[in-house]
């Protein structure tokens, strides 16, 4: 039982994390369970339910050796001595704290499942991102068992990023493990540290108390998102002043105190975590009577929303204040490159705003078309989904870049130009294309935070 690890939740975090753990710890038996039967069936099939570079290999190498996917939550709880909980913790949509606080119903359900089916002591690990002091509530619920069992709660938040999950899990910047400060908590901590020591150097394993660990995860996401909103706010100022956001990013990123990462202007951050985690932080600050701190962090989300709206306003303004009936080729729907995940993707809001203007959308994405269809299922308007970028571009008035997929740089924009309506526009929401080359092909090019390259308006270029 000591060598059986259970993970509850086979999502973007639970399954890749456990696959890498199983790969590095052959003497452990790792079981990943989920109530979603379809998801488990997909993890057991040739076509895994999520796309991540390198994930296929690591799953297929270990599956049914020491890595198992199952819907038997109850059986898994009975067998395992160590339980990672990696269920979703979305933002509450109703009741107290709606729109900000974390919805802990899935999390609490797992606690109740653990009590009900446990027959011996266990270490329960918070892998999900949770509000600071959740472990306290968790401990109270689990201690309320009448079987005389002991549960140690450990916080071990996950810092991997989608698109680079396998590399991040294999070589993380750090692994953070928080434990209660009593003897039992410290014993549990040592057991979890020993698992990670199979492949992580000691100086990358940071141990703290539970509260610091829980809060650090929220703060890490808030700080990353804050950098994105900071540079995006400056992109708006660049467009007014003829400063170039690429130069500004380079110049400030060369300062070793600032660093070059996460200061690329774009249409805004997305993904399932940043917005929900910042709003959760905002809620916590309000709850603890810190309104100034709450307002500071809330502004990060407001700037993010503003950047998407600003991008659409620019499209409408530049296309003669009318995009009704015009076909627009949307390149990219995933919230970032190298993933098919579209949760909270800025593309969702941008496409909806374009549809409100009665544009016709032809959406192209290498991995995210299936999710895009689900996200826009309730939107009225003309939408087509194109595997082939040339099909999306044909007869379009504009190409709009929403995701920084590497392959978008290599597309044949000369051929697209020939097939497009004129004047042809490109709005590069990720600043990934060669704007001067596109301008020379005949496009009117509108990057973010840089001078427009526009044949129609001699003042712009
Ligand atoms: N996605 C990321 O990049 C990322 C990174 C770091 C941390 N996180 C955090 O990790 C947690 C999980 O995120 P995710 O993206 O993997 O979510 P997800 O929605 O992809 O997966 C969660 C899974 O938990 C399952 N589940 C819910 N309740 C259950 C129950 N009672 N029993 C069994 N299974 C249950 C769901 O069916 C779902 O498959 C969240 O708290 C998130 O904030 C996510």
Short description:
The protein is of the alpha/beta class and 461 residues long. It is built from 17 helices and 14 strands.
Describe the 3D structure.
Helices cover 43% and strands 14% of the residues. With 461 residues, it is α/β, with parallel strands linked by helices. It folds into 2 domains: 4-200, Rossmann fold; 210-461, 3-Layer(aba) Sandwich (Rossmann fold), CATH 3.40.50.720. β7 (175-179), α8 (183-196) and β8 (205-209) form a beta-alpha-beta unit. The longest helix is centred in the middle third of the chain and has 32 residues, at 210-241. The protein is elongated and about 75 Å long. The mean pLDDT is 96. The structure holds nicotinamide-adenine-dinucleotide. Residues 8-14, 33-36, 39, 73, 86-89, 106, 109-110, 128-129, 158, 160, 162, 272-273 line the site of nicotinamide-adenine-dinucleotide (NAD).
Strand order of the largest sheet: 3-2-1-4-5-6-7-8
- End-to-end separation in angstroms reads 69 Å
Assembly type = single chain
CATH superfamily of the largest domain, by name, is NAD(P)-binding Rossmann-like Domain
Share of β-strand residues: 5-15%
Q: Overall mean pLDDT score?
A: 96
Any idea of the CATH class of the largest domain?
Alpha Beta
Q: Assign the structural class, choosing from mainly alpha, mainly beta, alpha/beta, alpha+beta, or little secondary structure.
A: alpha/beta
Would you identify the regions where 5 or more consecutive residues have pLDDT less than 50?
Answer: none
| C-alpha Rg (nearest Å) | 24 Å
């Amino acid at each position: 039982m000591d060598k059986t690890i259970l993970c509850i939740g086979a999502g973007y975090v639970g399954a890749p994390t456990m696959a890498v753990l199983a790969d590095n710890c052959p003497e452990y038996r790792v079981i990943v369970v989920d109530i979603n039967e379809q998801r488990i069936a997909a993890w057991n099939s040739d076509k895994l339910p999520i796309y991540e570079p390198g994930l296929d290999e690591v799953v297929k190498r270990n599956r049914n050796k020491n890595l198992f996917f199952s819907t038997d939550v109850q059986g898994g709880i009975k067998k395992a001595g160590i339980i990672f909980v990696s269920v979703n913790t979305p933002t509450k949509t109703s009741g107290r704290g709606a729109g900000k606080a974390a919805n802990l119903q899935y999390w609490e359900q797992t606690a109740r499942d653990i009590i009900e089916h446990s027959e011996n002591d266990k270490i329960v690990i918070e892998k999900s991102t949770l509000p600071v002091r959740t472990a306290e509530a968790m401990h109270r619920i689990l201690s309320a068992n009448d079987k005389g069992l002991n549960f140690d709660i450990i916080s071990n938040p996950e810092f991997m990023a989608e698109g680079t999950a396998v590399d991040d899990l294999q070589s993380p910047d750090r692994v953070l493990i928080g434990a209660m400060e009593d003897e039992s908590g410290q014993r549990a901590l040592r057991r979890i540290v020993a698992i990670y020591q199979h492949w992580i150097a000691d100086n990358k394993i940071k141990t703290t108390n539970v509260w610091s660990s829980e809060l650090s995860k929220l703060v890490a996401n808030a700080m990353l998102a804050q950098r994105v909103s900071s540079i995006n706010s400056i992109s708006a100022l660049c467009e007014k002043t003829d400063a170039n956001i690429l130069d500004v990013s380079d110049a400030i990123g060369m300062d070793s105190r600032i660093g070059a990462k996460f200061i690329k202007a774009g249409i805004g951050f997305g993904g399932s975590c940043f917005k929900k985690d910042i709003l959760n932080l905002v809620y916590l600050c309000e709850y603890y009577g810190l309104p100034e701190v709450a307002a500071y962090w809330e502004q990060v989300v407001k700037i993010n929303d503003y950047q998407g709206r600003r991008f659409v306003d620019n499209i409408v303004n530049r296309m003669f204040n009318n995009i009704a009936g015009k076909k627009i080729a949307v390149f990219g729907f995933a919230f970032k490159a190298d993933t098919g995940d579209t949760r909270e993707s800025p593309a969702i809001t941008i496409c909806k705003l374009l549809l409100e203007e009665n544009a016709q959308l032809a959406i192209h994405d290498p991995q995210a078309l299936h999710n895009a269809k689900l996200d826009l299922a309730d939107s009225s308007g003309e939408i087509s989904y194109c595997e082939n970028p040339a099909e999306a571009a044909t007869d379009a008035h504009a190409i709009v870049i929403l995701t920084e997929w590497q392959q978008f740089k290599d597309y044949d924009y000369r051929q697209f130009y020939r097939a497009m309506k004129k004047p042809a526009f490109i709005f590069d929401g990720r600043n990934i294309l060669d704007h001067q080359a596109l301008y020379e092909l005949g496009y009117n090019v509108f990057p973010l935070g840089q001078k427009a390259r526009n044949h129609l308006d001699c003042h712009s270029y």
